Amino acid sequence: MPNSIDVRNPRTGKFDYVIIPPPPKLLAQLCNRLRRAQVRWQQLSIDERIEVLQEWKQAILAERDRLTEALVNDTGRLSISEMEIDSFISSIDRWCRLAPDLLQDSAKNTSIPFIALQQTAVPYPLVGIISPWNFPLLLSTIDAIPALLAGCAVIVKPSEIAPRFVAPLMTALNAVPKLRDVFTFIEGAGETGAALIEYVDLVCFTGSVATGRKVAEIAAKRFVPVFLELGGKDPAIVLQSADLDLATSAILWGAVVNSGQSCLSIERIYVAESIFNKFVSLLVNKAQQIKLAHPTLESGELGPIIAEKQAAIISDQLLDAVDKGAMIHCGGKVEELGGGWWCRPTVLTKVNHTMKIMTEETFGPIMPIMPFSQIEEAINLANDSIYGLSASVFAESPELALEVAQQIEAGGISINDAALTAIMHEGEKNSFKFSGLGGSRMGPAALKRFMRKKAFLIKTNSANNPWWFDE
Ligand code: NAD
């Protein structure tokens, strides 16, 4: 395992930060310590755990400026970093509101009059979280908060590409000793992530399909549950009756926000052929108004491409598309500005499913558009993917849009809007195909993933049961 890892700044291209992964022995000791402290944490009442999380929230608010600065250096963008912090803080409050009801035990009569049933659930002792770089704070804490409230201890291995936010977050954690004992972050790359899986009782992984498969294999050997939240190639379908002004504004946001570096970005657009030209010209017009946040953080809406490897993927997919006949209407290349990699909103037509840009995850602000003549054709194109994370359908009649949505193989589908699961985490959903595995990370089910259910079956009379041996 390397002693240290240099971290690149996405705006300057300079390696100006260093992280040090824990040696294997230290990682083992850390996990043992968390596991021991979890016993006391589980014994606290839910109200006591909520109180501790609220204390942490106050400590985070005190560190807000440092946290913002660290996230800006990690990702090169400002307003999304602020949104990320707001969303993180409101998710602490949301889970604190929901948890007491979700953690209630229940007792009921059963189909056998003299057997009562009591249901309870116990937390997995130690949860391991491995997270990506695109929303570093949000995706390293989205599972941690419900897991902690459920009574688990949690250890997080965030991405080595955007790890600066960990220092201010740890300062806030250290201010709350009861939480610090059961919740921590470790730095490191893939090897540290892989090593962590050996010590935990449940794994939440967010990242690529390729890594997800490796993580699932290690977890399977140990028989520990694993929840995988992986990549996507989200389609948007725009039917003939759709409100084009609304559809183009929603799709532009859904495809381009955070420079397209979101698992639930719209990455392919299928538009009814009768409105195709009008849709393209409206979208291009709007896309051209979006500016890069360069040279300053406030110069525009779009930050740099955070991971250098991603800039290479976007370039390769654009070249492949143009080689195979695609037409670029705006944007169209990855540019180097001040040492960072940037990409303007890009609209492409004359695309098809032989191109990587229509089939592989891009993770950039790219909007390839294909016409369709029949709704069935649009549904087939949308489902012609190894992915099934989310999707959008636009139509004048929500009923018609819902009918189409029913036939799309994806877990979260926005109707007459885009990427709503980024904003609202209330609806339970599962990933389809290679976009993931396991229970819903959203809605009430998210917290229940961290508990093992127990059924107490209680005999309430003193007579012999009819199915026992005759005496
Ligand atoms: P990645 O798979 O390269 O890395 C994710 C994490 O896994 C990192 O922390 C990395 O250090 C760690 N890792 C790498 N190799 C490992 C191994 N062998 N064992 C254990 N851990 C290992 O992904 P990325 O490039 O950081 O993130 C981008 C991907 O994440 C995209 O595919 C995106 O769609 C996906 N993503 C999915 C969601 C979702 O909710 N479905 C959300 C955000 C991002």
Could you characterize what this model shows?
- InterPro entries: Ald_DH/histidinol_DH, Ald_DH_C, Ald_DH_CS_GLU, Ald_DH_N, Aldehyde_DH_dom.
- The active site is at 229.
- Residues 6-455 form the Aldehyde dehydrogenase domain.
- Keywords: Oxidoreductase.
- Belongs to the aldehyde dehydrogenase family.
- The chain has 17 helices and 22 strands.
- It has helices at 24-43, 46-62, 64-75, 79-102, 136-141, 144-150, 166-174, 177-180, 190-197, 209-222, 244-256, 276-287, 308-323, 356-359, 375-383, 398-406, 445-448, and strands at residues 5-8, 15-19, 106-109, 115-123, 126-130, 153-157, 183-185, 202-206, 226-229, 234-238, 266-272, 327-330, 334-337, 340-343, 346-349, 366-372, 387-388, 390-394, 412-415, 432-433, 436-437, 451-459.
- α2 (46-62) crosses α7 (166-174), α3 packs antiparallel against α7 and α4 runs parallel beside α6.
- The longest helix is centred in the N-terminal third of the chain and has 24 residues, at 79-102.
- The chain has a seven-stranded mixed sheet. Strands 7-6-5-8-9-21 form a six-stranded mixed sheet, sandwiched between helices. Strands 3-4-22 form a three-stranded antiparallel sheet, with no helix packed on it.
- The termini are far apart.
- The chain has 471 residues and is of the alpha/beta class.
- It folds into two domains: 5-230 and 435-456, Aldehyde Dehydrogenase, Chain A, domain 1, CATH 3.40.605.10; 234-422, Aldehyde Dehydrogenase, Chain A, domain 2 (3-Layer(aba) Sandwich), CATH 3.40.309.
- β18, α16 (398-406) and β19 form a beta-alpha-beta unit.
- The structure holds nicotinamide-adenine-dinucleotide.
- Nicotinamide-adenine-dinucleotide (NAD) is lined by residues 130-134, 139, 157, 159-160, 189-190, 193-194, 206-208, 211, 214-215, 229-232, 263, 361, 389, 436.
